[in-house]
Amino acid sequence: MDLPNLRWWGWGTLDQTYSLENQPHFWPTLRARLDLPDAPEPRPAVPLEQIKLPPSRLDHPVVASLQRLLGEEAVRTDAQVRVEHAVGKAYRDLVRLRAGKVTHPPDAVVYPADEGQVAATLAWAADRDIAVIPFGGGSSVHGGLEPEPGDRPTVTMDLARLAQVIAVDRTSRTARIQAGARGPALESALNAQGFTLGHFPRSFEFSTLGGWIATRSAGQACSGYGTIKELTEAVRLVSPTGIMETRNAPASTAGPDLLHVLLGSEGALGVITEATMRIRACPAVQDYRGLLFHSLEDGLAALQELNHHGPRPTVVCLSDAAETAGCALLSRERRGLRGLTGRVADLYLTWRKHSLTNGSCLMILGFDGEPQAVERRWQQALAVCQDHGGLSLGQAIGESWKLERFSHPYLRDTLLEAGVMVDAIKTSASWSNLLSLHREMTTAIRAAIPATGGGPGYVMTRVCHVHEWGASLSTTFLGRQVPGREVEQWWEVVRAAMEAVEANGGTAATYHGISQDQSPWPARQVGPLATRIQRQVKQALDPLSIMNPGVTAHL
Ligand SMILES: Cc1cc2nc3c(=O)[nH]c(=O)nc-3n(C[C@H](O)[C@H](O)[C@H](O)COP(=O)(O)OP(=O)(O)OC[C@H]3O[C@@H](n4cnc5c(N)ncnc54)[C@H](O)[C@@H]3O)c2cc1C
Q1: Where does the pLDDT of residue 262 fall: very low under 50, low under 70, confident under 90, or very high at 90 and above?
Q2: For ligand 1, which residues put their CB under 6 angstroms from it?
Q3: C-alpha span between 458 and 429 (Å, rounded)
Q4: What is the pTM of this model?
Q5: Does the structure show a pLDDT above 50 at 224?
Q6: What is the DSSP string of 140-187?
Q7: What local confidence, expressed as pLDDT, does residue 520 receive?
C-alpha cells in the first residue's frame, strides 16, 4: 500500500538523488558562502532499527476490533510504518527523523479501501476517544501530520487505497477523483483521456489530491490554471457527524459557500474522500522561456503589467538576484543558465549590462495552449518585458527549468547530510507591498542566521503564484547548522521572518496549510470573531475533536 523504497528520512525514493556530478563549483562556492568546514563530517540518518519508539497504546483487543472493520492487512502497528507516518517533510521533521527523534508516532496506521471503511473507522475512533489524522502523500511542511502529545492514542489514516480517477465528464470538463490519488498517477490518467488538471506543486511526485485540497495548495502553473481553490468544483468529506458534500454547480449564487470551509481544513474537519475537479484539454504546446531583468523591480513591473493587461502567462517564476546566482551555480553543464556562461555569452551579457552572479534577475515565463495562440502571446509578452528592460534568453533555459522543476527537494537531503540548515518561508502580498516585504523579510532573515550561530548564511527569493492582485514570495535560507540545536536554530530564523511578514503586510496563510508551526500568526491575522466561527464549524462536524487535534490553533 505504501510506496516501496521510500526515503523515510528525506524526500522521494532511495533510487533517486540530486546529482552534483558535472558541477565542480557547487561545494567550494557553498562552503565559502556559508563558511562551512572544508571537510564537513557527514551526518547520515540513524538506521531505522535504532529508533526507539514509544510502544503503541492500542492493546490487542482494540487492534483486533479495527482489523475486523478493515481487514488484517489494512491495520499496521510496525515500527517502519509508524515512523513513515509520524511527521511530514519540513526541515525540522527531517532533522528530527535523521537524528532518530520520533517522540509521538501514531499508535497505528490504517488503509481504508472505500468510503464506508473511512466512516466506520471514524465511528470506531469516536467510541474510544482516539484521534484520527488523515494522511495523503505525507509532504506536509507545517506539522499537519504530527500526533498531538498527550495520553490520547492516535490512528493515522492513509488514503493510498482511494486513488482512482472515478469518472471524466468530457462535456462539462470535470473529473471525479478519489482523494488519495498522487500527482503523477492522477495526471497520467487524465492525460490518457486528453485532459490535465494543471496542478504541479513542487511536491507533485509525492502529494495527493486530498492533501492539496486540505492545504489549499498552489502549483507552478497556477498563474494559468489557477490554484487548487479555483480548480475544485465540489468536495465530499466524511466527518464524525456524517457525510458533507458540497454542490457541484459552477454558477451557483447560493452562499455562504461551504466548499471554502473544506479547502484548507487540514484534516481537522473530516476526511476528504473525493472531489470533482475542473480539468482542461492537454495543451498542444508548452513554450517556456527565460528572460533576464536588471532588477527585481523591473521584473515585477513586467509581471504586474502582464497580469493587469495580458497576456497572462501560465507559468511565472521570477528569481531575485541572489536566487539567480544560485540557479547559475546549480545549472547543469550545457543546459540552463550554465549554457550562458561561455566566453561569448559572458561578453554578450556584459554588453547588455547583465551579470548572472551580480544583480540580474532571472524570470521563467511559460505559455500553454494552441501553437498559434502561444506564439502570438509570446510576441506580446516579449514586447512588455522589453519595455521593462527584459532580455530574452530563449527556450533552452525554459526547457531546463521544466526538466528540473521537481528535482530540487532531493538536493535538500544532500545539504542536510553536510550539516546545512535549509528551508523556505512562503508568504504572499498585494503588488503594492511585495517589494518592501521582500526587502524587510530578507533583511530579517539575513540578521537572524548569524545571530543563531549559523554563519553568514544565504537568503534568496522567488516570486511565484502570480495573479492580478499580487503574488507569493518563496524565500529560501541556508546557514550552518548548530549541532544539537538544529530545530531551535531554525525556529529562531522562522520567527524573525514571520514577524517581518506580519509587520509588512504579508500573510502567513499562503499556499501551505497553516498549522502548529505558524498558528500564532494566522489567528492574529483573522481576528477573534472569525476564529470563533471557525471553531463552531469544527464543533458541528467534529464535536469530540477527534480529527487531527491541535493541527491549528483555531480548529
Ligand atoms: C519539497 C516540497 C515542496 C513543496 N512544494 C509545494 C508547492 O509547490 N505548493 C504547495 O502548495 N505545497 C507544496 N509543498 C507542501 C505540500 O506538498 C502540500 O501542502 C501538499 O498539498 C500536501 O499534500 P499531501 O498529499 O502530501 O498531504 P499530507 O502531507 O499527507 O497532509 C497535509 C495535510 O492535509 C491533511 N490531509 C491530507 N489528506 C487529506 C484528506 N484526504 N482529507 C482530509 N485531510 C487530509 C493532513 O491531515 C495534513 O494536515 C511542498 C512540500 C515539500 C516537502
Answers
A1: very high
A2: 11, 88-89, 133-141, 144-145, 159, 179, 201-203, 207-208, 210-212, 214-215, 217-218, 266-267, 271-272, 409, 511-513, 548, 551
A3: 23
A4: 0.95
A5: yes
A6: -SSSTTPPPSSSS-EEEEE-TT---EEEEETTTTEEEEETT-BHHHHH
A7: 56
